[in-house]
Amino acid sequence: MSSWAERLENPVSARLRDPATSGYAGLVLGALAAFLSIPPIMTRSVTWPILVGIVAAMLGIWTVTRGRRRLGLGAIVTGLVGLGLGVLATHSGTGNLNAVFDATLIAQMFASATPLTFGAIGGMFSERSGVVNIGLEGMMLMGAFWGVWGADKGGNWVVGLLVGMGTGAVLALVYAYFAIHLRADQIVGGTAVNFLALGITGYFFFQLYHGNYVSQGVSTIPNVHLGFLSHGHFGRHFLGPAIGNLNLMIWVSFLLVIASYVVVFKTPIGLRIRACGEHPRAADTVGINVYAVRYGAVILSGMLAAIGGVYLSDGFGGGTFNDNMTAGRGFIALAAMIFGNWRPAGAFGAALLFGFSSALALKLQVYSPSASTLFNVLPYVLTLIAVAGVIGRTVPPAADGKPYRKQ
To answer: Number of helices (H) and strands (E), helices first, in the chain?
Structure first.
C-alpha cells in the first residue's frame, strides 16, 4: 500500500496543489456562482451562489498564501462579485431573466464581437512586428464608410468589401510611412490618423449623401442560414436562434482567428514578424528586411480593421452609415488585443467578453436604462484590470513601439 508521502508526490496531487490551478479554479467558480441563478440553470435558492462564491474566494486566499498574489486576489474578487450577482439574480423575476438570458444573447454577442475581432487581430499583426497601431479606429471608420459606398455604387457587397479594404490599406500605408520611415512618434501618429479618418469620412459623407442616411437597397453582406440547426426542441429553442442565422463575416472571423494563429506561430513569415517585433537588429543581421516586414504587417492590420468597419456598416448596420459610426470600437479592439496578451485566441476571447457585455447591456434595458448604461463600462474596467496585471501580466513584444534605424 502506498504511503502518504508517495501519494503526495503523485503528479495529479501536485497539480491540484499548484497555486496557479487553485487560482484559475477560483476564477471559474466565481463566474459559475453568478451563472447558477440565470437561465438555463436558474436556481432560485441563494444557497448555491453563496456556497460556490465562498469556495472561489477560499481558493483565492489559498493562492495568495502560496505566493500568487495577483491571481489569488482576482479569484477572491471574482468569487465575491459572482456571489453578489447570483444572489441578486435570485431576487429577479423569472420573466425578466428569461427575456435577458435567451439564445439570441449569444447571436448578439457574436455580432458585437466581430468588428472587435478583426481590429484586434489586425492590431496583433502590427504590434507583433514592432509598430503600435493606435490608428485602428480610423482605419475601421474608413472601411465602414467606403465599404457601404462601394456596395452602393458597385451594386454588390463584395465590391464594398474590396473598396473598404483598399481604403484601410491606403490609410495604413500613410501611417506606416510616418511611423517606420520617418520614425515619428507612433502614439501621436496613430491619433492623427484617427482624426484624419474622421475628417475624411465626415466630409465625403456630406458631399456624397448630404449628411443623410445611405439610400435604401444597398447590397449587404448576407447571413448564413443553417436550417438543419433548427430541428428538434433544442435546435428550435437554442441552436437555431443562437448560431443558425449569423452573418457571413462572423464565420469569417472564426476562421481568421485560426488562420492568424497558424501564420504567426507556425510559418516562416510569422517567425519573421515576431523577430522584427522582438529584436529587429538580430532579424536584420540574418537578412530579414525589417522595414518590409513592418510595412506589410501595418498594411495588413489596416485591411483587417477596415473589414471590421465594412461589417459594421454593411453587415451589422444593414447598409447604413452615420458620422463616427465606429464609436470607439477600434480602441476597444486595441484593448482586446492587450487583454489577450498579443495572441489570436486571447484577443478573440477578450472580444467575445466585450461583445457579451455590450449585448447584455442592450438586454438589461428590461430592468432599467441606467443598469444598461453602467454595464457598458465593464470592458474598460476589465481592460484596466488586465493591464494592471491582476490576472496575469501582459507582456508586449520587446521592440513594440520602438522605431528601427538600419545601420
So the answer is: 20, 2
End-to-end, the C-alpha distance of the chain in Å comes to 68
| Torsion angle of C-alpha atoms 265, 270, 275, 277, degrees rounded to 10 | -90
- What pLDDT is stored for residue 1 in this prediction? 46
Mean of all residue pLDDT scores within the chain = 87
**Looking at per-residue confidence, does 131 or 359 come out higher?**
131
Structure confidence at residue 123 (pLDDT): 95
- Structural domains of the chain ordered from first start: 4-99 (no CATH), 102-387 (1.10.3470)
Half-sphere exposure of 53 (CA within 13 A, CB side): 21
ω into residue 396 within 30 of 0, thus cis? no
Residue keyed to cell 434595458: 365
CA distance 102 to 40: 8
Buried b (16+ CB within 10 A) or exposed e, 162-174: bbbbbbbbbbbeb
More confident residue, 276 or 367: 276
CA distances to 149, 161, 336, 385 from 164, rounded to whole Å, are 9, 5, 22, 34
DSSP E strand boundaries for 17-176 = none
